[in-house]
């Protein structure tokens, strides 16, 4: 994925936008593997709260520091689940008139009811299960695991 992005952006200096907090581990490894100059910024948005399913309500918790008008953007997501959060984020970013936007995601769930949303590169397609590790959490825990794992449903169901 890094080599593909290097090729696509070899004549530009893109702004890589990490979607906090889940994308941090993936973004760090991805940008270390890239060889082109780039800048980074972060946004924090949420549609989960403390639940394991998207609430459907998207909130901006932290906005960008950089002006993105006319810039080439690489949005880095940890996981595309319902597609709602990413759709909202892309609409908001497009309104700020960047030159273009590419979306890279570590994981994308295979969900028939998910919104069809732009994902230009995906590391792995996974079944519709709740996963943790490598930046992904449950109630703020497990982000530091060096791998991705399915969380046993007994942990979050009563």
Secondary-structure map with pairings?
Blueprint: H1 2-8, E1 15-20, H2 24-33, E2 39-46, E3 59-62, E4 72-80, H3 84-94, E5 100-109, E6 121-126, E7 131-132, E8 149-150
Structure in a nutshell:
This protein is of the alpha/beta class.
Query: What low-confidence regions span 5 or more consecutive residues with pLDDT below 50?
Result: none
Q: How many distinct helices?
A: 3
Q: What class would the helix/strand composition place it in?
A: alpha/beta
**What is Rg?**
15 Å
| CATH fold descriptor | Rossmann fold
Order of helices and strands: HEHEEEHEEEE
Helicity range? 10-25%
CATH architecture classification: 3-Layer(aba) Sandwich
Order of the strands making up the biggest sheet: 3-2-1-4-5-6
Averaged pLDDT = 93
Shape, principal axes of CA atoms: globular
Integer count of domains? 1
Strand content: 25-35%
Give structural attributes.
30% strand; two-stranded antiparallel ribbon; 158 residues; 8 strands; 3 helices; alpha/beta; 18% helix
Can you describe this structure?
- The chain has 158 residues and is of the alpha/beta class.
- It has one domain (2-129): Rossmann fold (3-Layer(aba) Sandwich).
- The protein is 18% helix and 30% strand.
- It has three helices and eight strands.
- Strand 4, helix 3 and strand 5 form a beta-alpha-beta unit.
- The protein starts with a helix and ends in an 8-residue tail after the last strand.
């Amino acid at each position: 994925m890094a080599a593909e992005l290097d090729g696509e952006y070899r004549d530009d200096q893109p702004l890589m936008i990490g979607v906090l907090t889940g994308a941090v581990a993936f973004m760090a490894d991805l940008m270390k593997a890239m060889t082109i100059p780039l800048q980074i910024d972060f946004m924090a948005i949420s549609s989960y709260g403390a639940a394991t399913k998207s609430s459907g309500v998207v909130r901006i918790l932290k906005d960008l520091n950089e002006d993105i008008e006319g810039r080439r953007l690489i949005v880095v997501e940890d996981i595309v689940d319902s597609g709602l959060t990413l759709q909202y984020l892309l609409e908001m970013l497009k309104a700020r008139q960047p030159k273009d936007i590419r979306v890279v995601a570590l994981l994308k769930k295979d969900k028939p009811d998910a919104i069809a949303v732009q994902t230009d590169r995906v590391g792995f397609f996974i079944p519709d299960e709740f996963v943790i590790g490598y930046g992904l959490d449950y109630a703020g825990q497990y982000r530091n695991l060096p791998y991705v794992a399915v969380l046993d449903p007994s942990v979050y169901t009563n």
